[in-house]
Write a structure and sequence with these properties.
mainly alpha, 82 residues, single chain
């Protein structure tokens, strides 16, 4: 069974969809952290021409942290409640 909302009337304005941005950013940081661990554990992923791969993961974590702070302060999605 699915929770379906009734169809809206033709003149009724659309309602915004709630998207939990803080959770999305947190999961993105976790994914980058896992990718960093994998690239450091598997030597083939950080040797030779791939020496930049761990740094890409670090950049993802740092930028995700900046995004987390931005959203946490209420600028990314002011109505987002945890």
């Amino acid at each position: 069974m699915t929770d379906q909302t009734p169809p809206r009337a033709p003149g009724e304005p659309l309602q915004p969809v709630h998207v939990p941005m803080l959770r999305i950013v947190e999961w993105g940081i976790v994914v980058w952290a896992v990718a960093l661990v994998v690239t450091l554990v598997v030597p083939a992923l950080h040797d030779g021409d791939r020496t930049w791969w761990p740094w890409a993961c670090v950049a993802g974590i740092v930028l995700g942290g900046i995004g987390w702070l931005y959203v946490r302060r209420g600028r990314g999605n002011a109505q987002d409640a945890r």
